[in-house]
Amino acid sequence: MSPAGCSHVNGYKVDNWKQNLRVIYQCFVWSGTAETRRRKAKSCICHMCGAHLNRLHSCLYCVFFGCFTKKHIHEHAKNKRHNLAIDLLYGGIYCFVCQDYIYDKDMEQIAKEEQRKAWKLQGISFCFLSENLMLSKWGEKYTTWEPTKRELELLRHNPKRRKITTNCTIGLRGLINLGNTCFMNCIVQALTHTPLLRDFFLSDRHKCEMQSNSCLVCEMSQLFQEFYSGHRSPHIPFRLLHLVWTHARHLAGYEQQDAHEFLIAALDVLHRHCKGDTINDNGKKANNPNHCNCIIDQIFTGGLQSDVTCQVCHGVSTTIDPFWDISLDLPGSSTPFWPLSPGGDGSTVNGESHLSGSTTLTDCLRRFTRPEHLGSSAKIKCGGCHSYQESTKQLTMKKLPIVACFHLKRFEHSAKLRRKITTYVSFPLELDMTPFMASSKESRMNGQYQQTVDVLNNDNKYSLFAVVNHQGTLESGHYTSFIRQHKDQWFKCDDAIITKASIKDVLDSEGYLLFYHKQFLEYE
Amino acid sequence: MKMEDMPLSGPDNTKLEALVHDIYSELVEDACLGLCFEVHRAVKQGYFFLDETDQESMKEFEIVDQPGVDIFGQVYNQWKNKECECPNCKRLIAASRFAPHLEKCLGMGRNSSRIANRRLASNNNMSKSESDQEDNDDLNDNDWSYGAEKKARKRKSDKNQNSPRRSKSIKHKNGELGSSVSSEPYKYNYNTGISYETLGPDEVRSLLTTYFLFLQQCGVISEHTKKMCTRSQRCPQHTDEQRRAVRVFLLGPSAPSLPDADTVVESDSFDIPDGQTLMSRLQWEDSPDISPADSASSKASTNHSDSRRPKKKKRPSLGLNSGGGGSLTGGGGSSSSSSQSNISLSTKKKRPKLSAPSISSIYDDLN
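^ inputs. structure came back:
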C-alpha cells in the first residue's frame, strides 16, 4: 500500500476486482472508441438527479452514478456502505471514510494501462513542440518521474534547488579551443542544443555495450552532464577530441578542418556506437544496418528521392537514399545557378527577410530540387526503352528528418579555383518544407511554383535552432555558432565565450551550417 | 440542466449562446479540476515541495547581458591557464596546445614517426638532446609526399606553424551519407630514398644489422646500379652465395648468416669497413615487391635528395619498412620508448600492407 493509499481499499481488493476495475475504466472513464464514447455520454448520468455534469462519480461496488457536487454519491455511499467511488473524468478514486482522494499503487497501475490503451484506440497523435517531448517516443512506457521515499528524504535535506527557467544559464557552457578546434566546438554546441538529443541523453537512455572506454556516445552523455552541471568555467573537450580522432582517422591532425565534415564524421561514429540502444517492436535488438533505429538515425536521417525520367518513354526510375544533411549550391559558384523561376515570390511562403536581390534558403532548395537535364554525355539505360536515352533527374525529399541540417557549399574546390563564396544567403526562422517534398513534385513539374500553403498540415514545418558560421578564408578562419535556448533566446558561442545575441544578429549572419528542428512531433 | 432538454437547432440566439456558454464553462471547470488533482496528488505523495526553489540559487544562474562579459558575468579571455590530462601519455598539457600534442602523441601527425624515431635514437644513445626538439620538427621537416621534397623544405619553413590549412575538398554530393572519407591520401607517405653521408660507423652498423636481420632483404649489390637489392631473401635474381658475400663484405666476417624467417640475432659485434665507400653503396633499389608505399609515391625510385636528412637525425628510419620505428632498436631498445613504438606501430597497422609476411612476424615478436 502506497503512503498515499488507505487501508479501506483492502475491502475492495477481493475476487476479481482487477477485472471489474478495468471494465469501469474502459467503459466509463477513458473512452477508446467512438462507440464507447457514445455509450458513456448516454449512460453516465446521475441516477438521482439525471445530471451529467457536477463531477459524476461511479460507485466501485455496484452500478451507481452520482454527482459529487450535489452529494448524491455520498448518500449512496452512506446508505449502501460502499466506500469507494471513482471520478469519471480523471479516474481518481475517492474514499468516503478518509474523505479524500486516495492513490493506491495497484489501482493506479490499472488506470494508467487503460488510459494508454484508450489513447491507442483513439489514434491520438501527440503533437508537441520540440521543447516538451514526451519520452514515450523511445518505445518505453512513459512515466513521470516520481521520487522514492529515500529520494524525498534526501531532497528535503537539500533545499537548494535549481530550476531551469527562461532566464537561466544552465544548459549553456563555453568550450575551450584546444588548438584549431573551433569547428568541433561549434558542432558540439549545435548537438547539445538539439532538444531531442538532449532529452535522450539527460534521461540516460544510452546503454553502453562497448567494453573499452572508447564509446563516443558515453562521452556525449558525459558532455551533456557537463553542460547541465551549472559550472561556469568553460569545459575542456579533450576526451571528446581524443575519441573522435581515434574513431575517425581521416579527421585526425592538428590543423583547421571543416565543420561539416566533422559533423558527418561525428554522426557516423555516434551511429556506430549506438548499437546498444536499437530496439525494435519486439523489444529485441535490431542491428540491421539498413534499418537502424538508433537515436541518431531517428533524429537525423532523412530520405532523398531521386527520380530519373527517361525522355523518350517517360518512365521514371526512383531510388531513395538516406542522408544526414543537405548540401546546397550557392550563386556565385562556378556551377550554374539557375535564376529564380517566374514564380519567384515563392519565398514569401517562408516569411524570409527578402532583401531585394538576395538569395534565400528557399531559392537554394528550389534549385536543389529542380529537374535537371542530364546531358547527352550522360545517358542512362532506361528500363522501359531498353536502351540508352537522355533523361532528367530530380531530387526531392521523401522523408524529412526531425533535425534537418543544411550545408551551404561555401568552399569551392573546382579545377581552377579554390575560394570561399561569401554571398549572403538569407534564411528564415521558420521553414516549410512542403514544396520540396516528393509528394509536391508533380505540381512542380507542371510549372506551378506557387504552392497553396496548407495551414493545418504541420508535418513539414521547421524552426531554426542553430547556425554555424565561418569567418575568414579558405585557408584559415574561425567558426562560431548561434544556438537557441528557451524558445526564443539566442546565444552566440565563440569557443569559451557565450554571449546573448539578438535574432537579428542570427539572421544577418552569413550562415554555413543551418540546423532546423521539426516543430511538431508525432508518435509512430 | 439536462442536455436533452435544449433544442439544438433553435433559431433563438440567446439559447444558443447559453448553450455555448455552458459548454465553455464545463471545459474550463474540467481543466481546473485536472490541475487540482495534480496538485492534490503531489501533496499527498509528498513531492509537491520539489517545485520550490530558493531565490539565492536562482539568482546565481541568471543570464547576464552586458558588454564585455559573457552570460555568466565573467570577463573574456581569462581561460589561458587551463590544463588537461592527455588520455594517452597521462601528462598535463595546456588546453590550448592539446590538439597538437595529441596529434604527436598518437603518432598521427605528419612528423610523428620521425619524431618517435628520433626520440628512440636519442634514448638509445643515451643522449637527451633530441627529446626536446619536438616543437622544432615542424621547422625542419620535409614533406612526406613524394616528389615534393625539394620544395617542401622551403615551403614549410615559411608558413606559420599554427594554422596551415589543408585543402579539404568538400566532396559531399547531395544525398551522400555517412563517412565520406577525404580522398586525400594519408599524409604520412613513406619516403623511399635515403642518403647516409652523415652517418657515423656505429649507426651504419646498426642500420645494416637491421637491414639484414630484421628486414631480411636480399641486399646484393647490383652491378649496374651499384645499389642493394631490396627484395626478400628468397629473391630469384640473386643467389644465396651472393647474399652471403655482401654481408661479409659490408659487415665483416662476423656478419650474420642468412637466418631463417623467424630468428632474431643480437647485433653487437661487427666490424665495419671504410665508412665512406660504404655510404655510396648504401642505396636501395626500389622494388615493387617490398615497398609498402602507396601508388602516389612510387614514381621516382631512387630519388635521394640531399636535403632530406638534417644533421640531427641519428637513426633515420629505413623508409621502406619504417612501420615500427621502435623496432630498429631491437634487443637494445630502451623500454621507455617501447610504448611509443607500440603506439606508432599500432596506428600504422592501417597502412598499405607490408608485402613480405616475414617482416610483420618480427614486429609481432618485438611487441
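Residues 20 and 221 of chain B are 106 Å apart (CA to CA). Strands of chain B lie at 83-85, 92-94.
thumbs up if we can close this ticket
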